[in-house]
Amino acid sequence: MNVDVKEYLPLLIPLIAVQFSLLAYTIVHILRHKSYKRGSRTLWLIVSIVGMEFIGPILYFILGKEED
After folding, report:
1. From CA 19, how far away is CA 7, in angstroms rounded?
2. What is the mean pLDDT of each run of 10 residues along the chain (68 residues)?
């Protein structure tokens, strides 16, 4: 079972770009805001960075982001 990465690059590159863009936007949002529905700034930074595979940032926007 030999996987050729070059075959999947057209699919992987956009996904990686979206992933890092979402992570960057999430980190900027966390650092700019002082209040959260649940948790603290430190908690959400850890969740977002460790759970980087879309899950951490999505969890922040669903559970942690305070309504403006």
Report:
1. 20
2. 80 88 88 84 86 76 72
